[in-house]
Sequence to fold (299 residues):
Amino acid sequence: MLIVSGSSCRYLAVNVSRLVNIPLIPSECRVFPDGEIYVRIDGDVSGKPVAVFQSFALSPNDYLVEFILLADLVRDLGASKVIAVIPYFAYARQDDRFKPGEALSIKTIASLFKYLNIDSIITVDMHLHRVSNPSELFKIPVYNLSAMGLLIDYVMQVFKPKSPIVIGPDEEARQWAEIAARRVNIDYDVLEKTRYDSHRVVVKPRRLNVNGRDAIVVDDIISTGGTMAEAVKALRSCGARRVIAACTHPILTDQALPKILEAGAEAVIGTDTVPSSVSYVSVKTVIAEFLSKYIVTMR
Ligand code: R5P
Fold:
């Protein structure tokens, strides 16, 4: 196997290539003055499976086009298989038509992957709440790895929380809270909003009391930080002693970081699926472990 990386996650791709001892083929990706994207690889991929790395974050549309060009290029140059490694998969939140007339974006992207003749997809904590089986949607195997175990290990080691509890900011985040809590065998719950009248809305954990406890709020994505900031405020007003915010994909638009810290979080922790100032945890090990096993199944 060989690795080729787009410009969104070169550092992660180098680290994975070193961990699993898979050669990294140098690639050049740049933007012409008129905005068109140019890609080139410098190596022979003929007859070999190629893992193409690209995270669709921060400039998702440019990175998507870069990925399309790279994936089609390696296939064109004779790669025997093309494995898409997409640490952050954008457009996955639009997995339903929430209002009449909306594009079902993830379905369109899935058709594109099929058209590109991609053999399989490896991704991390993909936001697919209404699509239970992404392999059915993409019509190719989709391996959805999780960074929640790495995140909770990091938080437990660095912050040494007392009487810790994992909290999902909403029902959709229950899946992440459950993975993290089970890993270290602690309690978990999700927040729920109850409206008592037109003025009074209370957000609090559904089952458990957080008073005097250290809460770790986990979510797949922090984008504007609104969801996380609300969760942090709610937990502080319910008496949580410390609140630490953790997510897999720290997209961090709209002053998300100060918003969450001002809401009362002690720290925000993310992974390198999206390179950011809070990417303290690397998903290199989960991707590398998976690729090592994947290579064995290809023999
Ligand atoms: C939504 O369902 C996701 O799991 C995240 O909660 C959401 O994307 C966070 O967005 P924001 O940071 O803009 O509130």
